[in-house]
Amino acid sequence: MVTSSQPVPPLGLTLSHLSHSYEMPSGARSVLDDVSLDVEPGEFIALIGPSGCGKSTLLRLVAGLETPDTGTLLADGASITGPDPSRIIMFQDPTLYPWRTVHSNISLGLDIRGEKNPEAVAAAIRLVGLEEFSRAWPHQLSGGMAQRVALARALINSPRMLLLDEPLGKLDSLTRLAMQTKLYRLWKSQGFTALMVTHDVEEALLLASRVIVFSPRPARILADIHVDWPEPRHREDPRLQSLRAHILEQLETGISPLATA
Q1: One-character DSSP codes across 2-40
Q2: Where are the domains of the chain?
Q3: Mapping DSSP to helix (H, G, I), strand (E, B) and coil, where does residue 63 land?
């Protein structure tokens, strides 16, 4: 179970020549085209690309919720054939159960498995700073607090990889900034591997150790950018602003390769 002092062993990931499509009334629609990517254990990878290009589909494949048409997915060398508690996905909508308190929403995974571990629930609540709201109901929470509950619900399963599908996308700007800091600190302290879909280029450069830039659908990798600047990073850093401009240009054109930062 998750604790503030016992990091999990992070998960490595290998994607080889992934392609995927969906059947539509007009025929098959390709969303991923020959995507290959290696993720080292403990990395924070941001996935950037045009809306609808296939980023969220890639997360679903890694989560084991769908199977690719072609290609292989390996987690620590083992084939991904379905969902697993080591790989937890967190969506933009926190999807809290309105009839369960903060405490019981966070303990949901444990309850389903028939496990009782109040210490683990309390530790998860402390990690996201909601000690005073453990008995609150979802309708009493702000958007940022609800997302922190969803984050704690994911972390209580001690995931080795956290898959984040625009988890901060619906938050107001101030809450989003605070949640970026919270997410970054949890990644550093808990040690999991992170893959995050975001449309915010600045957010990607502030949080991630690598930024993967995708083409329009069907998604191909246009650039793999290593962000190895010293911490803490600052929005005013000229390097960040310059690279942000390059990525935005890349997203606009969808053709010119980017140099590694």
Answers
A1: --SS-PPPP--EEEEEEEEEEEETTEEEEEEEEEEEEE-
A2: 13-93+162-253
A3: helix
Contacts of residue 11, Cβ cutoff 8 Å, sequence gap at least 6: 41, 75, 76, 86, 87, 160, 161, 192, 193
**DSSP secondary structure code for residue 260 in this structure:** P
The second-level CATH assignment, the architecture, of 13-93+162-253 is 3-Layer(aba) Sandwich (3.40)
DSSP state of 192: -
Supply angle C-alpha 216, 222, 227, rounded to 5.
125
pLDDT in tens, the chain (261 residues): 554 445 679 999 999 999 999 988 888 889 999 999 999 999 999 999 998 889 999 999 999 999 999 999 999 999 999 999 899 999 888 889 999 999 999 998 888 888 888 888 998 898 888 999 999 999 999 988 998 999 899 888 889 999 999 888 878 888 888 888 888 988 998 899 999 999 999 999 999 999 999 999 899 999 999 998 877 788 888 888 999 998 998 888 875 454 444
Paired tokens of 187? 């990644």
The whole-angstrom separation of Cα 35 and Cα 30 is 12
Say what the pTM is.
Answer: 0.88
Which one-letter amino acid corresponds to residue 261?
A
The closest of 102, 179, 182 to 139, measured between CA atoms, is 102
Written in H, E and C, the secondary structure of 138-188 is HHHCCHHHHHHHHHHHHHCCCCCEEEEECCCCCCCHHHHHHHHHHHHHHHH
CA 118 – CA 103 distance, rounded (Å) = 9
